[in-house]
Amino acid sequence: MTTAFSEHDNASGFSSPSATLRRRHILDLDDFSKDEIELVFKTGDAMLEVLGRKIKQVPTLRGKIIANFFIEPSTRTRSSFELAAKHLGASTISLDTAKSSMLKGESFINTLHTLQNLGADTIVIRHPQAGAPYLAAREIRSSILNAGDGWHAHPSQSLLDLYTIRQCLGNLEGLKVTIVGDIKHSRVARSNIWGMNAMGIKITLCAPYTLLPRHLDGFVSNSHLAPIVVTTNMEEALRGADVIMLLRLQGERQESGLLPSIREYVRLYQLTEQRLSLAKPGALVLHPGPINEDIEITPEIASGAQSVIDKQISNGVAIRMALLYLITGGNHAE
Amino acid sequence: MSQALFIKGGCLVDPSRGINRIGNLLVLGDSIVYEGEGVPEMPQDTLILPANNMIVCPGFIDLHCHLREPGFENKETIATGIAAAARGGYSTICCMPNTDPPIDSGAIVEYVTRKAAQESSVHVLPVGCITRGRKGLELADMDELARAGVIAFSDDGASVTNSQLMCHAMDYSRALGVPIVSHCEDTTLSNNGVMHEGWVSTMLGLKGIPSAAEEIMLARDLILAELTHAKLHVAHVSTQGSVDLLRQAKEKGLPVTAEVTPHHLTLTEESVIGKQPFCLRQLRQHASSREEKELIPLFYNSNAKVSPPLRTAEDIEHLIIGLREGVIDAIATDHAPHTLADKNCDMDKAAFGISGFETALGCLMSLVHSNQLSISLLISKLTCEPAKIIGRGSELGTLKEGSRANITIFDPDSEWEVDGQNFVSRGKNTPFHGYSLKGKVMATIINGRIAYRDSSLPLPKPFSATKNKERGEDKK
User: Distances in Å between the alpha carbon of B31 and those of B35, B59, B232?
Assistant: First the structure.
């Protein structure tokens, strides 16, 4: 027998791993263990299988309410989360702050209470200020999934990055990953430092000093992370890399005096064919998007054979389905 | 005239005269009339206040607090601020002019002074603005302010960024004999930062305020003080580099003084991630009735957001050395009450400031209990040293016979747990919530009256009653 909603005759509609995440919220990867990340990957595999079906929906989260609360413009993360919730059969609320009553002066916290009272089991939050999801998690009972907070964290992005690398290269342990660009203002870089460290990846950061946090050493030692290589020289950073991750350069960095000019940045840090050849043959190229073509990367490389940027986007839906399942479908709800 | 009061058997600590011994005090009217080891003649109805195992010292003087009135009465009023100060052992407080309207005219000074006098409790000495409206554009009417009674000039909360204007302010202040209090912050460097620029801000992705933002402005103001010979007092020093700059200036003999706050002496940047400092003990997690709340680390703790920001353990070490060497003259609370709404938001939006009156002594005593400061040094930084800075060294901050009876009595060993909700201040914003502090104010006597008495301290009994009782027993 099959139900109207699933192709398989089991409760979840897919072959889910038996373990669940022992956490209510996903705020950052700073406290994720290797095992937990592996569990997300395994769940992601099952979700990818669902996405390969003709009918891309399972009833796993039917009757659950997932709210997307985005207080910052976002295309791919937002649509990725919305789609993920729908594929799992959840009811969704999407709060567009341009239209919501936050414009009328309703506070962040009041809006959270409204969403909670509307019955949201999980609230996916994107916020321009670092730490807002922590405030939310302390304030209300719904599960909070951080979809990016200021310069701080973007855990689902990091997990989909790691998942994509694992999919292409197999084992993550011992890989050399070079992250190039505006590290200082990047939540993607911060979450990836935690995630990659947990998975035994060797990290190299490359940027001009104005785009690197000044107290990186103290952060690494106080957080007991494996050493991180930091260099301002792109050629040096790329040599022997298994993976190159580029970050988006915001135009405002030049305006605020952190860079002399975009032109100079391009000359020093753009990923060109010549520079790419310094990395290992077949090294992967990742970019969290949206891409500034002809700034951090040439269009040829962005759409070239070594680029996995498209894969990141499709894997993003599977990983976000996995995360929503693991915190909304698990056993934490009262 | 209030009833006579005999404070008996306490440990008298009066650094203004180098006194630290067991003794008695007799207060008649608003003055101390006897200080010593014996029992003087006293009126029949004298109240007896036994102070065994307690420290009896001059009333604390706070050079730096925010009473918020007029303009921000939802954060604090003069009345609630005074009540909180009395509870913290303070008998004299200097309030900053960042009110609305700011204290930049004689009329506002009078308003604040009159409101404060209605409480007939803690003495409130207003600080006037350096610039009109605290806008940093033109000088306030400094002579009018001085005549109205301000004890210092400051645009606290903001630096006077225009160096020429600051230079003029210092020049003009010389004739008035009133110090300039500088809030040192190069705003182009602090640039909307919300915490110390260090490893924690790096981890949390928060905009940092580098130590250099304070030190650069301090260096400028010290140079201007040397140029103008004006009296300069530096507010809330927070970095090692600032201590070094001040030491150099003092070695040159400049008329410069400085203060540090209790929170900068005990807390570090790690308070923003809810980590407890080395010398204080945390009893429980931050406000949490619900179970799941406790699973969330106290990251982005906006109650630890303060200007200047909480720095590092090394900075604390040098601030303490600065106190011991006399490079830093006084300890001031920078009591900065805020509403829950001001604080219960993300770090970028949260207001700067800590409600500090009611935890000051308890947290400072941790430095005494951990042998980093001696009790007399601590008390000097709370009493006679600040009195000198505001030119009241002869009348305030002393237990000398004949002086005004402003006395603080505290139990150095009493342990208590901080609960922000129990503050009498309207500002419940404290990073010490849930901490255990050792050292508690038992009574604050102002102008000979008991302005505050801890509930655990028995009501003082009249002398005659005790005597009558004794006589009664004799008759049996």
Answer: 11, 13, 32
Does A303 share its domain with A319? no
Q: Please judge whether B299 and A109 are an interchain contact, meaning their C-beta atoms are less than 8 angstroms apart.
A: no
Q: A184 pLDDT exceeds 60?
A: yes
Shared-domain flag, residues A126 and A160: no
Q: How much is the ipTM here?
A: 0.91
- Reference A123, options A267, A59, A135; nearest CA is A135
Q: Do residues A123 and A245 share a domain?
A: no
Angle between helix A108-117 and A132-139 (nearest 10): 50
- Give the residue numbers of B annotated as catalytic, written as ranges: 334
Confirm if B399 and B32 have CB atoms less than 8 A apart: yes
Which tens digits make up the pLDDT trace of B98-149?
A: 999 999 999 999 999 999 999 999 999 999 999 999 999 999 999 999 999 9
Selecting from A141, A150, A221 the residue whose C-beta is nearest the C-beta of B292 gives A141
pLDDT digits (tens, 9 = 90+) for A266-285: 999 999 999 999 999 999 99
Mean pLDDT of chain B: 93
What's the pLDDT score for residue B374?
A: 97
Contact at CB, A187 and B345, closer than 8 angstroms: no
Residue A73: the pLDDT is: 84
Which among A135, A151, A191, A205 is the top mutation candidate for probing chain B, defined by the most B β-carbons within 10 Å of its own β-carbon? A135
Domain that holds residue A246: 155-308
Which residues on A lie below 8 Å from B291 (Cβ)? Answer: none
Q: Is the CB of residue A310 less than 8 Å from the CB of residue A284?
A: no
Contact A214 B197 (CB under 8 A): yes
Which is higher by pLDDT, B470 or A95? Answer: A95
